[in-house]
What does this fold into?
Amino acid sequence: MVSANPFANNRHADVLNVEPEDDAAKLRLCEEVKNRAKGAFQQKDMLSAEALYGKAITLLESIPNGKVEASLYSNRSMVRLNLNKVELSLDDAKKCIAVDPTFVKAYYRKAQALTRLNEWDEAIATAQEGEKLDPSNKEFAKLVEKAEEDKAKDVEDKAKLKRDAQDVRVELHNASTARTPPVKKEKKEGEEEDTSMRGYKTTSDGKKTSYFHTDISQEAKELIAKQGFGKPQKLDAPTDEKEAKGGGSSWNQAGTFEEKNMKKWINENFPEALKGKSFDLPGEKGGQVVVKDVTDIKGDATITVARGKRKHMMDLTFDVEYQMQVNGETGSGKLTYSEVTANDDDDFEVQCTVGSETPSALREVSDAFVKSGGTGLQPIVTKAIKGIIATFKTQ
It folds into this structure.
């Protein structure tokens, strides 16, 4: 059987698995755990640091009338930011403030988490609260400045997208209204109808014909026939196709609006690039987590050429299905990626779901080595996705 503790083979398993019965033993163990947590953080072992700080919090909470130290929540908030567990980091920062409203670092952690969640106004307000507690701390001013810059950039990006969409609508409207039909003139009683505006005219012999028709004399007709004009001619010279502005089609030499749907390319390349990506589980018993398929790809992917400029647009949601194999047991699940765009500055939203038939022990393995954005399968998949996007932007 696989151990129910994903850290069973961790070097800190001796303290993580201990459950002291008396309060004095709990306090001694808590001090040991806190020291190890600091060391794990310094060695950038964030998963161990998160577990150790969590162990210290649990120990203190289990002591009657015991008081959890605010610094433990603040430190775990910092660790979870490093693991990209932003919502959990925000929760810890709030708990820290609830325990000790004067704990300055908690306001900084909370503001950091809110900035990553694009909650800029609340982030700025939180940083300003922290600055009131510690006016000499220059980091709060820097955080406020960054939040304001990110907010302004987001507003400008949305405005630009709106302007681009408006430009497209205007171009399409102009194209559809370029040939407005002429206003029909009402015919008065007794007045002969003027057909010239309809493209017809009356010839000298009283017949109606095309307005652009030209009468040709018999002598001219014989000369034209003799020279061979008017007969189909073969063109021997090849046509010269020029490259369109912005990389559009050859017929679009002016570089006006053109859009190419790349969804088929996405549907073929995402599964091809991600299938088989794997992570070997640590420990003596080993095991592996591997991507089996990419399914339910939804959204848009297009390449547009507008006014000679080429743009790559993408907004996708899809599932990355994975399988776990540890010591003869198997489990499965999926990573749901959303808000996958072609913008290098955008972070993906990732949600991990474990299959209902997965054993409980493997569920904890999934939490540690799939759900985590800091280590395991997820960062491998995310890196591969960014590689696909880079290739897409060369198309």
User: Anything to note?
Assistant: Residues 139-176 form the longest helix (38 residues).
